[in-house]
TrEMBL record:
It comes from the Bacteria. Pfam families: Hydrolase_3. One of its GO terms (cellular component) is cytosol. It comes from Salinicoccus kekensis. This is Cof subfamily protein (Haloacid dehalogenase superfamily)/HAD superfamily hydrolase (TIGR01484 family). InterPro entries: Cof, HAD-like_sf, HAD-SF_hydro_IIB, HAD_sf. GO terms for molecular function: magnesium ion binding; phosphatase activity.
Length: 260
């Protein structure tokens, strides 16, 4: 058997299909990789509280959360990179003027600055969490916020990109929503922290993803796989392309990589 590898999996569109369900073949493939002595890890835009059940189901204790800004290795927190508090307050003020709600996320919860809004309802519903954010317009004050969700329709993001790229990067994941992350944060940066912690050779690192927030990860990791359901411009950043999530994509990719 080859030396131990670590494999990072995105969640939405990679482990989860469109119904936010892990296909049976994916569960089988992840377990086979673990049984072969490899480490299965997660790299996601989601906060840890959003996928506790998934980690338990797959036996995963190492994860890169909130696009690289909250990193845990074997249940030990090893890296955090919160949003700039002053600039977060500034962007909140602009968003309120534009009727664009904001949700603040830390590792345990999420709260919005407005009680309800159609953009927020539709965007959060697409995640199929089964709940909505609480309402606390001061949730971001005096605490570390690692990511925000800005509910801004596609085409209306220009003002934010013009005035806030000194502190933030914006990654659209829904017609009505963008991730707001620290400018220097990414899944690739989070993975680097785990690679340093493990003192592992980068050639022993693998990654699977499908979305815009996976681009840096797919470029950084030498053994990267884009899912078949990814857009063509995302696939261009990966070293390999596997089949879609519902067509045994993880199973086929791990077999192609000779990990199972």
């Amino acid at each position: 058997m080859s030396s131990q590898k670590i494999i990072f999996f995105d969640i939405d569109g990679t482990l989860y299909n469109d119904e936010k369900v892990v296909p049976a073949s994916t569960k089988e493939a992840v377990k086979a990789a673990q049984d072969a002595g490899h480490i299965a890890a997660i790299a996601t835009g989601r906060s840890p509280f959003m996928y506790e059940d998934l980690r338990a189901e797959l036996g995963i204790s190492t994860f890169v959360s909130m696009n690289g800004n909250y990193v845990v290795f074997e249940d030990e927190l090893i890296h955090t990179n919160p949003l700039d508090a002053k600039r977060l307050e500034d962007i909140t003020e602009v968003a309120m003027k534009n009727d664009h709600p904001i949700v603040y996320l830390d590792d345990e919860n999420m709260h919005s600055n407005v009680p309800e809004h159609d953009y927020m309802t539709e965007g959060i519903a697409s995640l199929k969490l089964g709940y909505m954010p609480g309402h606390d317009p001061e949730y971001h004050i005096g605490r570390s916020i690692y990511q925000s969700l800005l509910f801004c329709p596609k085409g209306e993001e220009g003002v934010y990109q013009e005035y806030f790229t000194d502190a933030f990067q914006f990654i659209r994941w829904h017609t009505y929503s963008m991730d707001v992350s620290p400018k220097n944060g990414s899944k690739a940066e989070g993975i680097k922290k785990i690679v340093e912690k493990m003192d592992v050779d980068i050639k022993d690192v693998y990654a699977f993803g499908d979305g815009a927030n996976d681009v840096e990860m797919l470029e950084y990791v030498p053994n990267s796989f884009a899912m078949g359901n990814a857009r063509e411009e995302i696939k261009a950043h990966a070293k390999h392309v596997t089949s879609s999530v519902d067509s045994d994509g993880i199973m086929n990719g791990l077999q192609k990589a000779d990990l199972i």
